[in-house]
Amino acid sequence: MKFLGAASLLFFSGVLLVAASEDGMDMSMDGSMSLASGNMIPYLHFTPGDVLWFQGWVPKSPGAMFGACFGLFLLAIVERWIAAIRSLAEAYWRKRCLATPSEDSEKPVKSSTPARPSGTGILGSRTALPFIPAHDISRGLLHMGQTAFGFAFMLAVMTFQVGFIFSIILGLGVGEMLFGRYITKGVSH
């Protein structure tokens, strides 16, 4: 009997909490959400008036939409350019680190076994380059830039504005045509 009373008390308190949390608000996502200076339409659309990254950036006229789309197009090309710079830098840094002799290779080997190249051992050739602040700080900054562009593009796509989406896709494609041949395999981009 105590269990039934505790269960019914728990059930009714849950019902009261759910009823109190609604506050009479319509929580459906069928229409557009009214924002301070724009609307958010939750489906693909071509209509202007979406907030792009900041509350004050709401392209409402056709000219403003063209400018926003052209800006996204150029930023997408810049993202691919940064990927190419990062890839070329990675190749240069790898070549430079593997070309410099290590301290072990300068010492004469006094053993009957054949000499192995520097940086090799049981596991084979060196798989990771040494930490060099000039290389690794630059690598981190380039990665931060690429990540920032990725997040900015994701937020622009989340507006569901088809013009923004097409501009980003077109810019990434043109950027890949321009700079893709410089991007080596194995480098994340």
UniProtKB/TrEMBL annotation:
Q: Which organism is it from?
A: Laccaria amethystina LaAM-08-1
| Protein location | Membrane
Keyword terms, alphabetized? Copper, Copper transport, Ion transport, Membrane, Signal, Transmembrane, Transmembrane helix, Transport
Q: What is this protein identified as?
A: Copper transport protein
* Lineage top rank: taxon: Eukaryota
The record's family statement is: Belongs to the copper transporter (Ctr) (TC 1.A.56) family. SLC31A subfamily.
Question: Transmembrane ranges?
Answer: 64-85, 148-172
Against InterPro entries, the record matches this protein to: Cop_transporter
Ranked from the top, the taxonomy reads: Eukaryota, Fungi, Dikarya, Basidiomycota, Agaricomycotina
- Coiled-coil region list: none
UniProt membrane topology term: Multi-pass membrane protein
| CC per GO annotation | plasma membrane
One molecular function GO term is: copper ion transmembrane transporter activity
Signal peptide location in the record?
A: 1-20
Task: Tell me one Pfam family matched here.
Answer: Ctr
